[in-house]
Amino acid sequence: MSVRVWLASRNPGKVREMKALLAPYLEVCPWQRGQPPLESGSSYLENALLKAQAVRAETLDWVLADDSGLEVEALDGRPGVHSARYAEEGASDRENRAKLLAEMAGFSGDARRARFVAVLVLLRLGYPALAVEGSCPGTIAAAEQGEGGFGYDPIFVPDELSVTFAAASDLEKAAVSHRGRAARQLLHELQLGGVFDPGSRAG
Ligand code: IMP
Largest CB tally within 10 Å, which of 130, 132, 146, 164? Predict the structure, then answer.
């Protein structure tokens, strides 16, 4: 039997990935009510806590939040916590990618190093908040590649794959991604699951 957990996110890409990553142990349901809080924190952890606590105020069920971003070395870690709104407030994924690619135009080789980071916060009644972090190193591609995924996936090539996340399969991304690593750490902390077997967790 799985435990239902409300995910404090309306990002369809995140929701789809979290459902697949945590099944069959946790049943992830997106929280659709009310207005999401302003992400006013200066760290992924602060923002994840803000998002989780906003939902916690409405339900006693388990609540999970994901705050994540892309950090580019040559840009001193930008877009970082501002990844979702890099081009401007309310920007589309395409606009954010275009801004980043334009900024990276003069950089080649190691100067294109970057990493994705995800912080997950789980709130359960009677327990302290549980926070886990996952990261995935890689490089910013010269141009968009692939049709899958969301956000910056078409321009990020993880070190462990030879194509962008958008050109990789869901299972390939899950095996090496920041969110996949954080989700497996979360299951480990909850003493759920076991050895990660991508084949058994397709979703
Ligand atoms: P937030 O966590 O809601 O602040 O948004 C994180 C933003 O980072 C997303 O909107 C994406 O732009 C980006 N992001 C986070 N994780 C991923 C990923 O797995 N692939 C592509 N982009 C991501």
Answer: 164
